[in-house]
Amino acid sequence: MVSWRLAATEPAARAADAAAIVERLESLVGVVPEIRTLQVGTDVVGNPNWDVVLIADYEDLDALARYQVHPAHEAVGAFIRSVVAEKSTVDVQF
């Protein structure tokens, strides 16, 4: 699970950056074989804590490691880093 706080302060720019993150992350499904499931969404109530959240599932920690270095994921990650101010992550097993 990953949460991001966007850097932009203007509402239209924040909305555009959030939509771009969602679109780019969703584009990884079917491209990065390690992704079992992927859900990504934006805050809908104006919460000041986090703007975008990703919940993704992988077969195991090895699959997660392969996902993290996949070129398509690295390209999306570079874009995300360019528009966010903060990131929070947690990896859990259910």
From TrEMBL:
InterPro entries in the record: Dabb, Dimeric_a/b-barrel
Record-linked PROSITE patterns: S_R_A_B_BARREL
Protein's UniProt name: Dabb family protein
Species: Cryobacterium zhongshanensis
Highest classification ranks of the organism: Bacteria, Bacillati, Actinomycetota, Actinomycetes, Micrococcales
Coiled-coil portions: none
Domain of life: Bacteria
Domain Stress-response A/B barrel: 1-92
Pfam families recorded: Dabb
Gene3D superfamilies from the UniProt entry: 3.30.70.100
